Amino acid sequence: MKPIECTLALLGLSGFLAVSSCSDSTSPSPSASDLNLAPATGTILVGQTLQLQPSLLDTAGQSLPTSGVVFTSRDQGVAVVNRDGLITGIGPGTARIVASYTSLRDSMSVTVLPAGAVQVLLSPDSVVVGVGARQTFQLTATVYDAFGRPMSAEPSYSSSAPSVFMVSASGTVTAVSAGTGWARATAGIGADSSFVTVLPAGPVQLLLSPETVALAVNQTFQMTATAYDAFGLPLSPQVSYTSGAPSVFTVSASGMLTAVAPGNGWVHATAGIAADSSLVLVSSFSGVLQPRLAVGGGPYGLALSSQSVLYVTQLSSGAVLPFSVPALTAGTPIPTGSIYPVDVAFSANGQTAYVAHLDGAVVVVDVAGGSVSATYNAGFTAWRVLPSADGTKLYVSSSDGRIRVLAAGTGSVLTTITAATDGINSLVLSSDGSKLYASSIAGTVTEINTASDTVGRTMTVSGFLQGLAWSPDRADLYVAVEGGALKVLHVATGLVTGSVTVPTGAFSVAVSPDGKWIVVTTWGYITVLDRPTLVTVRQFTVDGREKNLAYDAAGTLYIAAESGGLDVIK
């Protein structure tokens, strides 16, 4: 109990008037002016607690006792608070906690998160297993609490498609049958899923090799089929073969082709649900490589005249060797009086031959007399020579990209054309002689107007270009590429519209008189292609490097073999 103090006062002059008053002897408490609640926010799990710390200040900023502060929760389903300011999480959500002292108020926000697992991450996002191969896969699940901290809790697993795959209690996926579905992992209120694909058993892909086969009648060939399962692993299943054109070729149970008659068709192979097909071309090409006719002196250039005279240049002998065809009776060598005769061409009437030499000489040969009638000087390394359509001019190419135009009758230089940036390896005329086409080492084919002897277009083919030959309709030029290709140049557009691989060292190219075949000479091979399809139908192996070649009207092919001979296919 507090003591009471009383005061007595006497007033007046003539008497006494007594007045008394009483009061509490304790001094009044300082007034509270500020209430603060800490922390301002908080996060706890259900069942966890958080201690609040109130502070009470007077007008002087001095701390006052906080025993009179009252705490209340405005969201008691989320959190409650006791008289001492201890918050307890009740359920997930956010609650406002209010502290009051007389007329002062402050509040804080507390977030209550679920207890236990709230998130599951299942890895990987998708799984591919197979029936019979790679049949199982182990999933990995990571469980997190509301604070994002990993937990040791084990999730439960389930399959949305038990007939397709099962999932064990430890998360192992096991394939049952082909199909798809979801594998699900659950822990607490957290869950995640991975997409599962189950691939079928057995072969799902079959590759038949080669993609294209060219055969001669009665020739056989063994096809190869390789089967793969859904994971790309090789299998060895039973493969069935059928012929799409039995009158053209047959195929055995083991994949052996036998050519029956000219034509083409597809050979089909199947294994399980997998299948593949290859094109089979049975060629009517019947050419036979004859025994090589020995020719000394390094045969190189070759040309056949309209009078059935064949000239073969002999590099080391400095001569041309004449033959009559088709008998192939050799005449007397004609010395050309210069070194390295690399090319020869006949006039349209076949009465004159022109022989180009590396030292720049262009030797004119009288064919009937078998003797040299004149020698012209091109003024640079002469590589190729070609008479104009009217026979009045000679086009002589060099190793530096220039073409010298000489008067055919006198050898005088009419003009010089810069056709490319590097050596010119082949020259051909259009059917009317109005255009000259020159292939170069620089990978271009240049079109030249023969009336003005000026460059019209330069078409890019790419590669080290060698021989040129026209298609029967004169729409395309076939271009030999030394690196091992034959390319098709569409002249009207200047675009390469086709390409096929041939052996390395492609040099000369020719089209058969009937337009069926393209022949390419290479290092050690003579390759015959079906012209419409560019499929190789025959490949003759020869000794050494095959160089220039020419067809006669009967379809007999003559090839100069640099190693010392004349090869003939008929």
Relevant terms:
570 residues; Immunoglobulin-like; 4 domains; seven-stranded antiparallel beta sheet
What does this structure look like?
It is a single chain. With 570 residues, the chain is an all-beta fold. The protein folds into four domains: 38-53 and 69-113, Immunoglobulin-like; 119-199, Immunoglobulin-like (Sandwich); 205-283, Immunoglobulin-like (Sandwich), CATH 2.60.40; 293-569, YVTN repeat-like/Quinoprotein amine dehydrogenase (Methylamine Dehydrogenase, Chain H), CATH 2.130.10. 0% of the residues lie in helices and 58% in strands. It contains no helices and 60 strands. The protein has a seven-stranded antiparallel sheet, with no helix packed on it. β56 (517-521) and β57 form a beta hairpin. It is elongated and about 140 Å long.
Structure, briefly:
This protein has 570 residues and is mostly beta strands.
Give the topology.
Layout: E1 4-11, E2 17-24, E3 32-38, E4 41-45, E5 49-51, E6 53-58, E7 63-64, E8 70-73, E9 79-81, E10 86-89, E11 93-101, E12 104-113, E13 119-123, E14 126-130, E15 136-138, E16 140-144, E17 150-151, E18 156-159, E19 165-167, E20 172-175, E21 179-187, E22 190-199, E23 205-209, E24 212-216, E25 220-222, E26 224-228, E27 234-235, E28 240-243, E29 249-251, E30 256-259, E31 263-271, E32 274-283, E33 293-294, E34 299-304, E35 309-314, E36 319-324, E37 329-330, E38 334-335, E39 341-346, E40 352-357, E41 361-366, E42 371-377, E43 384-387, E44 393-397, E45 402-407, E46 413-418, E47 424-429, E48 435-440, E49 444-449, E50 454-460, E51 465-470, E52 476-481, E53 485-490, E54 495-501, E55 509-511, E56 517-521, E57 523-530, E58 535-551, E59 557-561, E60 565-569
Parallel strand pairs: 4-12, 14-22, 24-32
Antiparallel strand pairs: 1-2, 3-6, 5-10, 6-7, 8-11, 9-10, 11-12, 13-16, 15-20, 16-17, 18-21, 19-20, 21-22, 23-26, 25-30, 26-27, 28-31, 29-30, 31-32, 33-60, 34-35, 35-36, 36-37, 36-38, 39-40, 40-41, 41-42, 43-44, 44-45, 45-46, 47-48, 48-49, 49-50, 51-52, 52-53, 53-54, 55-56, 56-57, 57-58, 58-59, ...
